[in-house]
Design a protein that fits this description.
With about 300 residues, this protein is α/β, with parallel strands linked by helices. Helices cover about 45% and strands about 20% of the residues. The model has no long low-confidence stretch (mean pLDDT about 90). This is LysR family transcriptional regulator.
């Protein structure tokens, strides 16, 4: 079995386009088509369907997908073990991360990892940035490790990194901006609310439910930094993690909320898999950086 054919197939599914997958993996268009055709002939099943909308799995292909991923994962483990013998000179690592971690922490962690192991290829998986998506990346075998928040999912091994404060963000000239004490949710009844659509949405909805508060949502937006800019320009308030607020310049007023809410940030792997040497090294480096750089997380 030529696993590279299956890697090409998975990449075509992820990108929704065989031509783009071929280009990314170094195949010609005809070469990629030949590889896919040979897999389908070998199995006697049509796996990919190509039309004007792109490349997608057939019904039969969807049934085979978990086993294809498992075959690729097995080869990766063989290579990873061999890499440990030769000092991790080659290899790959896929890391799932939601928005704030991908903006603040991962550039530092990946930068140091790359200095130590320059030939290890690292792919950052952000998706839509939601917490459940980070867990699903792991469970589906797409990510080798993922940053997660408040997870209680079965089958994951969690390494707690730090607790991140969730803060109220107000326009600089808002009347509540001069308040010294924590802001009560009921004080926000008349304030337009800017709702993030990534993982922070989960945090906010849980807080609102806990305090029996229904926000007056004026806008929703995926980008945390865009939300911050909208608050600065007086369009409303929002709740963002201190991890973002401490590491990006802004003019907004930052206030603690009643109860001083936080979110728990961990890095996770699957309990049914022994982390490869590359993954283990990445986990250790992540913990070291978090310990040595309290300015990032406090």
């Amino acid at each position: 079995m030529n696993i590279n054919k299956y890697r090409l197939m998975i990449k075509a599914i992820e990108l929704g386009n065989l031509t783009k997958a071929a280009s990314e993996l170094g195949y010609t268009q005809s070469g990629a088509s030949h590889q896919i055709k040979s897999v389908e002939e070998e199995l006697g099943i049509k796996i990919l369907q190509r039309d004007r909308s792109g490349t997608k799995l057939t019904t039969e292909g969807r049934l085979l997908l978990p086993y294809i991923r498992e075959a690729i994962s097995c080869e990766d483990k063989i290579l990873a073990t061999a890499n440990s013998i030769i000092g991790m000179q080659i290899g790959s690592l896929k890391v799932g991360a939601f928005t704030s971690v991908s903006l603040v922490l991962l550039p530092i962690i990946i930068g140091q990892f790359h200095q130590l192991y320059p030939k290890v290829q690292i792919e950052m998986l952000t998706g839509q940035g939601s917490y459940p998506e980070m867990e699903q990346f792991l469970m589906d075998g797409i990510a080798d490790c993922s940053f997660v928040s408040g997870s209680n999912a079965q089958g994951l091994n969690l390494i707690h990194l730090f607790d991140d404060s969730l803060c109220l963000v107000l326009p600089p000239n808002h009347p509540l901006a001069s308040t010294d004490s924590p802001i009560m949710f009921q004080q926000l009844n008349e304030v337009p609310f800017l709702m993030p659509t990534d993982g922070n949405n989960t945090d906010i909805l849980q807080l609102c439910h806990k305090h029996n508060f229904t926000p007056s949502v004026a806008f929703t937006m995926h980008d945390d930094l865009a939300l911050l800019a909208m608050v600065e320009n007086g369009l409303g308030c929002t709740v963002l993690p201190k991890l973002i607020l401490n590491n990006y310049p802004h003019k907004a007023a930052i206030k603690y909320l009643e109860g001083y809410p936080t979110r728990s940030i961990s890095i996770a792997t699957r309990t049914d898999e022994v982390p490869s040497p590359i993954v283990s090294t990445f986990l250790e480096l992540t913990q070291t950086i978090i310990h040595q750089r309290p300015d990032l997380t406090n």
